[in-house]
Amino acid sequence: MLDYETWLEMRRLTPQDQEIMQSGSLKTIRHAEANAAHLRQWLAERVSLHVIDNFDDAHKLAAELAGCKRLALDIETAKIDPGHPQSGLNPKLSRIRLIQYCNGTDCFLFDQFKIDSLDWINPLLDIETVAHNALFEASHFLHQGIIFNNLHDTMLMGRVFFDENRALKDLAEEALDLKLDKTLQVSNWGRPELLQEQLEYGAADAVVAFELVNIFDQWLEENESHYRNAYQFLRSLIYPLARQASHGVPFDEEYHNQIIAWWEQARDIALSQISLANPNSAKQKQAWLEETLTEEELFDWPLTAKGNLSTNRETLEKAHHIPAAAPLAEHTTISSRLSNFGAKLKAQLVDGRLYPGYQIAGMVTGRFGCRNPNIQNMPRSEFKQCFRAPEGFVFVTGDLSQIELRVAGILSEDDVINEAYRNGE
Hints:
The structure is a single chain. The protein has 19 helices and ten strands. It is an alpha/beta fold and 425 residues long. The strands form three sheets. A six-stranded mixed sheet has the order 1-4-3-2-5-6, with helices on both faces. A two-stranded antiparallel sheet has the order 7-8. Strands 9-10 form a two-stranded antiparallel sheet. Helix 6 links the parallel strand 5 and strand 6.
């Protein structure tokens, strides 16, 4: 099926081709074109776009922008290894293709493949710079030896008011009544000549960030000081986390291969005990349970909305305590581990290390979140031995006991909770 980016490229190369133009009537392309037209109009009402494609112009413009009080920043990255799942996300597997700066009236798009140097950006490093999910920008520039000395983050500003880190797309629609189409987010940013729609997409992220920071600034000004203090604390974590993430986590691939072999053997043993032709078939698993479980066990077994025996992973993994269902529960648990922590996890390795995507205050409770891969949620016991400290170093682990409840006691000034902790209960 023809995707939007391919259609745009074909239209640019052969604009008179009627067959190509007619394919623009396809629903997905028509929808993307409508969104692009709306975005183009939205941008035109706010800023002028300027593309900079040589070092001299970039250096001269940076000197002028250094006089701004505030700039919004966004970047687009090109994949170095298109086959790797972290390419374009991990700075080690990415190249900065486009740098977008917005000052409120203009948006400047610096084409780094053509400028071929980042030295021009030095005059801007002390300016108040705002990005959405600034950890991404901080990490990629840090990889190039560049640090912004006054970096702010609209995602973290919003976090002190909302119970989650909201995506730019969601905030744009809620606060600015703009529907940001993310179709081109995963487009080919390594192409020699960027599409006009790609430039407009990149510009929009910087312009939206600039408008959002003005809204959040007002909110912070209108609310009690602890909101701003909370934001400043979250913001202070950006560079420590970027530095930590840049080192990655050493991973023993050889030991990991052994664990995979053990899991595969255990899975096959469990499968031989349930004798299902297709262990992924819900109907076959339901039939097996009906034949295997007692009437009492069947009566207590969770059901689907349609009244059938539930065979989802969560249900089966909780059935280890039922002797008759244990083989199916074991097969389900091990199959899930192989799916999530086998070849899929190995594919995330870069030079023998994992580079998790940490998220500041990513959880509802305010704790760090983690994804791609989530090393905060790895299998217990022997699997943790896959993580090996470099030679001459050791891992030091620690845990804050019942930290959420302790904080709740302090904030609520609950005498019972606080007295219990003071007494070591």
